[in-house]
Amino acid sequence: MIVTTTHQIPGFRAVRTFGLVRGSTIRTKHVGKDILAWMRSLVGGEIREYTKMMAQAREQAIDRMLEEASALGANAVVGVHFQTSMVLSGASEILCYGTAVRLEPEGRPSTEVR
Length: 114
Hints:
- The protein is of the alpha+beta class.
- It has a single domain (2-105), classed as Translation Initiation Factor IF3 (2-Layer Sandwich), CATH 3.30.110.
- It contains 2 helices and 4 strands; from the N terminus they run E-E-H-H-E-E.
- It has helices at 31-43, 48-72, and strands spanning 2-3, 12-28, 76-88, 91-105.
- The chain has a 4-stranded mixed β-sheet.
- The chain is elongated and about 60 Å long.
């Protein structure tokens, strides 16, 4: 499946738009990682434990968005964005959203009903 932040993809045209699709996950801090993060903050530098946790959360949100798009019959999601918000102290939501579409290569006649 094609996933892009742009709304148009060179060489393709959207023959059907399914609408908004999204995926999200909520993650909380782990006490052990929180202690490591606090100690690392004393000397500065990247907090690798949280970097890894957020990367995993983004991937899970993308996977959930793609599952929703696939269930609709889409073969691409365009205009993809991420958003994050604090749900409660120590817990954050990662949201990934975009527009599910069916793409065809340009120049190929459409068989889809619009």
